[in-house]
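Example 9 (inverse folding). The structure is encoded as follows.
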């Protein structure tokens, strides 16, 4: 009886400590500026070429159109990635595609959502890529998972950007 008396409050406290911190955060943001020595149109074309995705998206397996044309504004696509030996599907909504300057898309996986906006600003000798990503989640469990995994997700996004920068730079 003593075990139950102490185990239930301990279990409740553990769940509370795991779930509660994420409930105070609505979203996390990542902002990164990258200077590239390529013109905006070349950078944009490289980002939108599905044949180069495997070079800069870790675990990339394929992309399938769900609604609309594959690389058209308003289209919905399924991005297939491999993580820990399992295939996962991210749903991609291409919201804005203003060649060669702006690309905005939202990626969904279960209760999590990543909204990205990439702007290519022309500069002498190339362009600057401004990337803003907002991570958010639905529901109290989704918010808790996002709170505890946000650094891992942020590191994966930064790895994708580093890979893209190396591909565009020709390294």
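The amino acid assigned to each position is listed next.
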């Amino acid at each position: 009886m003593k075990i139950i008396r102490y185990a239930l409050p301990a279990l409740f406290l553990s769940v509370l400590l795991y779930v509660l911190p994420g409930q105070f955060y609505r979203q996390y943001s990542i902002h990164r500026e990258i200077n590239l020595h390529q013109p905006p149109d070349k950078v944009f074309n490289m980002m939108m070429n599905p044949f180069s995705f495997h070079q800069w998206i870790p675990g990339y397996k394929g992309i399938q159109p769900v609604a609309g044309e594959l690389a058209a504004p308003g289209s919905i696509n399924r991005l297939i990635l491999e993580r820990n030996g399992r295939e996962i599907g991210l749903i991609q909504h291409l919201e804005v595609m203003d060649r060669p300057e702006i690309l905005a898309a939202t990626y969904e996986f279960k209760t999590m959502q990543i909204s990205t906006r990439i702007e290519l600003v022309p500069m002498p000798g190339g362009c600057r890529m401004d990337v803003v990503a907002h991570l958010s989640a639905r529901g109290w469990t989704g918010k808790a998972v996002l709170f505890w995994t946000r650094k891992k997700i942020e590191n994966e996004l930064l790895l994708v950007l580093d890979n893209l920068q190396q591909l565009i730079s020709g390294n």
